[in-house]
UniProtKB/TrEMBL annotation:
Entry's transmembrane regions: 53-74
The species this protein was found in: Anaeromyxobacter paludicola
Regions annotated as coiled coil: 21-48
This protein's name: DUF3618 domain-containing protein
Keywords noted in UniProt: Coiled coil, Membrane, Transmembrane, Transmembrane helix
Amino acid sequence: MAQRTEGVSGQLEGMDPADVMKAVQALREQLVEAAARLEEQLELERRMRENPFAVLGIAAGAGFILGGGLWPVLRPFARSLARAATSPANLMALAAAFGAMRASQSGQDEAEPTPPMAPH
């Protein structure tokens, strides 16, 4: 991640500050236009006039979910799922399944069949 930010800062060093400001301004205008288009498509003003409590409820529910309101309820399920997924037996089964998938894909990619191996 540090290499990526260094690359961006290296790119910005060679740019003229006026060009950077123009690019930021263009991005800002595009974001404002996209937000306006989204608002038109969702007809938010009409919906807020017709059903203000429904819009308020949806916004409150979205804020609750995005704010982590469901995490205490979901934590035990996530913990048991993580425990089950990382058990040694399941990890071995997953590794075998991935190996089989890889072998079947490489078998489809090859044009010629490989000769059978001699017994040891």
